[in-house]
Amino acid sequence: MKRIGLITSGGDAPGMNAVIRAVTRSAVVENIEVYGFLRGYAGILDKDYKKFNYSDVGGIMERGGTILRTARVPEFKVPEVRKKAADNLKDLGIDALVIIGGEGSLTGGKLLSDEQGIPVVGVPGSIDNDIAYTDMSIGVDTCLNTVIDVLQKLKDTASSHERAFIVEVMGRTSGYIALMTGLAIGAEAVIIPEIPTDYDSLAEKMWEERKRGKINSIVVVAEGSASAYTVARHLENRIGFETRITILGHIQRGGSPSAFDRILASRMGNESVKSLIEGEFNVMIGLSRNDLIRTPIEKVLAEKKSLDLEIVKLANILS
Ligand code: F6P
Fold this sequence. Notes:
By secondary structure, the chain is an alpha/beta fold. It has two domains: 3-139 and 257-302, Rossmann fold; 142-254, Rossmann fold (3-Layer(aba) Sandwich), CATH 3.40.50. The protein has helices at 16-28, 41-45, 79-91, 103-116, 140-161, 176-185, 199-211, 228-239, 259-277, 297-302, 309-318, and strands at residues 3-8, 33-37, 49-52, 96-101, 120-124, 164-169, 189-191, 217-222, 243-247, 283-288, 291-296. The chain has a seven-stranded mixed beta sheet with strand order 3-2-1-4-5-10-11, with helices on both faces. Strands 7-8-6-9 form a four-stranded parallel beta sheet, with helices on both faces. α3 (79-91) packs across α4, α5 (140-161) crosses α6 and α7 crosses α8. The protein starts with a strand and ends with a helix. The model has no long low-confidence stretch (mean pLDDT 97). Bound molecules: 6-O-phosphono-beta-D-fructofuranose. 6-O-phosphono-beta-D-fructofuranose (F6P) binds next to loops.
């Protein structure tokens, strides 16, 4: 292994820079060159890259976003486009590729490897925590901290005005961010794609809590379940008290990574290089019971990560 490529791809996530740093430094100390391609797969197609030395990745761990920039590249679904990417990697003498990203990015990597024989290793980076075979993806912890911070502020206003707030969070088709946020801030309810919502009993619960003296109500909605506007329409008539809507949007993806994300990113970045050196290709690095594991990307993509239903119950008991 003489030269590796590195991309961040798909939605950015806090901690991606810490992975770039860890991959680069772990490779350079083993005399492996690192080429960082800009804007994910687009940079491979354009041969747009930077060669990274040890000191090039200094001072980036604490920065949000990704210094390699990122992009969603739909044309990568076309086999001829993937062939061009593989030809470019071969021209540049790249022996293997580290892909930091979510499901779509890992799918691109798997195809590059299956069709074109490019060895790849994946590092799960996505705020959604919807990737199987890892307890946590990079960026999730920071995202939750951001969302909790904002919701705590909304709770102040909800209490002052005795209002209900319907807050929409990201997560694609997963309710993970909504559920964990609901648990961490004591929301009245979380509305998630994994579980159908009974608006009559939710409205009743909100009324009961008002009667018990609670002056704020927070309902967290996962974007993959319903829009905050739809939920507000369902609830407003039933509960009869003032409702406001907040859609958090891309604020959830930025910011300096938490300690957890920095540590996870450093460990996973290092492990991805170890995996390449040991000749274990086409795997994704994951976290399981605080150990790092390597799982074939094919297996990762074949499985949908499910939510822990015990946590759903717990959120309901404690709210
Ligand atoms: O996958 C991360 C994510 O932020 C999702 O939660 C969200 O649905 C999507 O990306 C938004 O994508 P974009 O930034 O392309 O609008």
